[in-house]
Structure formats: C-alpha cells, structure tokens
Amino acid sequence: MNSASFANSASTFECGGENSKNPWQSWQTWQSTGAMMTQIDEIRQSISLIALAEEAGAEFSDAHRLQSRCPLPRHAGDRSSLAFSIYDHGTKWKCHSACPEDASGGDVIAFYMAWKQVDFKTAIKELSERIGAHSLPLRRTPIPEPVVPAQPALWSERAEEFVSYAEKNLNDEVRAYLIQERGLSEETIRAFRLGYNPTNVYEDPKRWGLEGKKIWLPRGIVIPGFSNEQVRYIKIRRPMQKDVLGKYIGAWTERDGAIDVKFGGPRGGRSVLFRLEFNDHLSVLLLTEGEWDTMLVWEYAADLCDVCTLGGAQSKFDSLDLAFLTSYLAILVVHDDKAGERGRSYISKLHAVSERIVPIEPPAHDLTDFWKSDGDLRRWIARHVHDAMAPALNQKNESTPMHWRKVFSHIQAELDLSKRR
Q: Which of these CATH numbers, 3.40.50, 3.30.2320, 3.80.10, 3.90.980, describes 149-264?
C-alpha cells in the first residue's frame, strides 16, 4: 500500500563532570561488592515486580498488556489514565505521566524505592528480608533468555508506508517547530526521515502482522528508528497540555486522548540504535539519552564524532552490537549523575559490553536545553571528543586511520581558536 492509500486510511478512523581529570574516577566509586551484586540479583530473580505493583495498588486488566493507573505516592497528576506500565517480560516499569523524574521507572528495586519512598540501601535491606536473602547463602541462578518473536515482515512494510506518508505531511508549522525548538536543519530533518501525522489513526493490527487491539497512530511528529535500512520502531511526539509543540501543530484536545502520554506509536517495534548508518565511522561514538539529542549532535558535530541513542529503551542492551561498539576508540555516554541507582545500573551494563565506555555529565538537563540556553554545543562536544582521542592520537601509531588524525588536528585547531577569542 502506498502513502496515498494510507491517507485514505487516516480519514477513515478518528559522570565525570566537565573538570574531571580522570573520567573513570567516578566509575570506580560506583563499583559494589560481589556480595551486594549477588544480593541484588537474588532480589530481581525472586520478587515479582507485577505482584509488588499490585500490592501497591496497581490493577492490570490485560495480562498481555500490563497497564494500570499509577499506584505510586509521588504521582502528582491525574490518576485516571493508564499511565503506569510494566514491560520487558515483567522486569521493568515506567510511569509515563506525572511521577518525578528520579522515580518514574526502572526495575523491581526502583519500584520499591518509589513506592515506600526509601533510599537504595533501605530498599535492598527490606526486599532481602521479604525473601530471607539476608540470612541465606546466595547463589546466582541464571534466568533463561526470553524468546522474543521475530518482527513480522508486514510490520516493517506498513511502518515504511506510514513513515513515507508522514514525510509528505511535513508542513511549514512542523518545520518551524523542528528548526526553532529543536535546532534541526532541513538536511537533518530529511536525513532522519522525520514526518508528521496530522490525525489520530486506529488501524487493524493485521495490517501490521499483529493481533489484538487496534494499532494507535496518534497525531504528532513521527520519529522512525532504522536498522539495515528497515523501520524497526516508530515514536510519535504528541502535543501535551500547555506544551510548546501545541503552539505549532494545535494544542491537545480531548479527541487526542491519553492526556499524560508524551510519546505514542505502533506497538510491535524493536529496540535498535537510533542513528544514521554508514559504512565508515569516526573514532568516537557519543551515546545520548534520546532521539532529539542525537539529531541535535548530528546537526552540530557530524564531522567530529558519530552519535546514536538506545531510543530511550535503556534496558534493551541486546540492541547494542558488540562488534559495532568495539570498532570505536571510545564511546562517550552522556549520563546525568543525578539519575542515581537507575543511572549507575545503566552505566554498569554498558561498561560490561565495552570497557571503552566513558560517562560524561551533560552541560544541562539535556543537550537540547543547553543549546536553547545559547550554550556552545559544538565546543562542548569537541572538547570531550578531543580528550577521548588524545591518549591514542598523541602516540605515533601508523595503524591509526589517517582520517581520524585529520579530525583530531581539526578539533585541536578549533579549540585553540576558541581559546583565543
């Protein structure tokens, strides 16, 4: 089906900080003892997140789609929507609505902390007492890997049709938002194939190779994630109440529904690295916290480093291709140290994949905020890339690719010039 037929369908339905001398210093302070890590694993394996959420007050009506009103005490907004969800085979949770940022998602331990409003140490102690882990010799029992069904071929085909349809719907208002609020140029918008869905659509799941409930394609900006030139997931940024996006594409209305859900999109997607795929690569990879920051870094520093994100799915580490990562001299992870235990777990898992990973603290809440406050984003990136490349590039090694040396020399010259200004 082509994009024109899709339009017909749409009408049918309604870490170390900036001055850190040793980027591994903060990493080393995060290491837990072997006994503590074993205890944490025992808790994660023994205590059901679903049962714990139900004990806290969550009510799940569909065993295959674990959504509920948020049961957590610090949820500050409307509790009428099903903003709380459990995913990743019952091991992760997320409040998509009004929970504070530091208590809005994670594993069973993070849920207990948010529910009981206790710190990490207390949560470990109390959860251990629930299973008697404090008095028993602990053994790590491997959890069998869940079998994830292959993504239907129909899903990718229909997703491509939808992305093409959304690209053709890009209008001046949407472009103005992407340029003025997100810092993206026309070239970057086209490169990442951003688009716009002008109306809420509910499609027959069979058209996507799925069963069950209809596929929800909400009104908003379409952000597709690709792997091997195929669409693997789609996020749609929706307008929220009192949201700047609403000034460009129309404010949220009751017809949009799901008042607390910022991102929608078709179910059935697969977590992949959100990036532009090329045969060649630069020496440093910058791993950001989301798609917007990835595109902004590409806009300002595509000649200095490669950039990607896990697409917000920080638990989906199977999407990290080990061969892909080890081809880099360094992987810089933009990581907010205020993320606490959840963030430490994230970095720990990344470090297990590759020792070349270095956490760096963002210059603001995120890179987009830094850019909007007139921060010199390119210089910030250049300095971190320079520091990551310097130990290897300052040595005379004939095996170092020539274009890496050229990038390093260019960065040095650019940083020297900015110092003289």
A: 3.90.980
Domain boundaries 284-420, corresponding CATH code? 3.40.1360.10
Of 313, 344, 401, nearest in space to 88 by CA: 313
Give me the residue spans of the domains in the chain.
Answer: 34-131, 149-264, 284-420
Per-residue tokens: 346: 């994230």
Could you tell me which residues are beta bridge partners of residue 203?
A: 215
Cα-Cα-Cα-Cα dihedral sign, residues 257, 258, 264, 266: negative
pTM of the model: 0.67
Element (H, E) at 360: strand 357-360
Residue corresponding to tokens 């040595």: 395
Q: For the chain, how big is the Rg over CA atoms in Å?
A: 23
Tally the C-alpha atoms within 13 A of residue 87's C-alpha that lie toward its C-beta: 16
pLDDT in tens, 351-384: 666 667 888 888 988 899 999 999 999 999 999 9
Average pLDDT of adjacent 10-residue blocks, the chain of 421 residues: 49 38 36 56 86 90 80 85 84 86 86 92 88 45 52 94 98 97 96 97 96 95 94 95 94 91 92 83 90 96 91 49 73 70 61 73 89 95 93 74 86 78 56
Strands 306-309 and 67-68: what pairing? unpaired
Strand segments, DSSP code E, in 54-169 are: 67-68, 84-87, 92-95, 105-106
Please check whether the domain covering 34-131 is classified as CATH 3.90.580.10: yes
Quick one: tokens of 32? Answer: 């837990």
pLDDT per position as a tens digit, 295-352: 999 999 999 999 998 754 444 455 455 567 777 888 888 876 555 455 556 666 666 6
Closest of 280, 387, 382, 274 to residue 327, by C-alpha: 280
